[in-house]
Amino acid sequence: MTKEPPHKSREKVKTLLVDLQENICNGLEELDGKGKFIEEEWMRPEGGGGRSRVLKDGLVFEQAGVNFSEVYGKQLPESIISQRPEAKGHEWFATGTSMVLHPKNPFIPTVHLNYRYFEAGPVWWFGGGADLTPFYPYFSDSQHFHQKHFEACNAVNVDLHKVFKPWCDEYFYLKHRGESRGIGGIFYDYQDGSGNIYKGNNKDGNAYEISKEIGKVDLGWENLYSLAKNCGNAFLPAYEPIVRKRMNHPYTNDERAFQLYRRGRYVEFNLVWDRGTIFGLQTNGRTESILMSLPPLARWEYGYKAKANSREELLTKIFTKPQDWINDKELEDYCRQNNILD
Asked: Global pTM?
């Protein structure tokens, strides 16, 4: 039996996520050096609301959106009931902070973050994660991003990252393209401290197999709250050094065009596969905030083929496939030999 959440659980998570939004926005404004977030508060007629913050046309970020929402209602959407049928018939509450950053420079990766909490009657869970989508590949950037999230997970339980990393690779996968959205990070959902770590539907994947080998992990509400806090606070240390390293890298019109082409894949995932987008639209969330994740510019090109042995080919060959970025020495040597190590 899942343990009940503590007294004032909703208020505690809300405070955590509001503070996360505030701290990330402050850090990003300092990093950009020019752009400032514009805030809009919104109300949801059925209950709740949120505040959306968007930075446009900065020195570093073409568009950066960091949202907070707190919504509630009486009838759950089918996207939730299909996953957790025991929540059906209960009033529900959901809060989260989500973020997508689209830098100008093609050598700086796009990045996504989302941490959330849900309650409906006897049902509660935490979910979240962060993932990186580079356009021009650097092994060291990918390794650094993964290392910081590995440390954040391990501070709570050493088995979590073993499952969350392949779960991220599994989730951010464009089935119609046969490729990953980027180099991944961590992803988790429906974490309520009961049963195995993996709560997804793919019983043929690595995340399921690893979780099955680990077995039941006993985590309480406070453990999972700490996980969200650790991982949320790991974002700026994971991303900021990458930005500072790449922000002054010169780029050509062709490299910018490739960035916009790869952004098209980002759009495809968010509109076709992303459960957060579907949940937001099904619960009558604020459309502008939900679609804030989309880049201001993107392009599609029929039958595009990267030049042989180019950085663009290496991106699609290596950096859109699941890899062990922390421990794979052969991959590190390969990237060194192809001048995409650092």
From this structure: 0.94
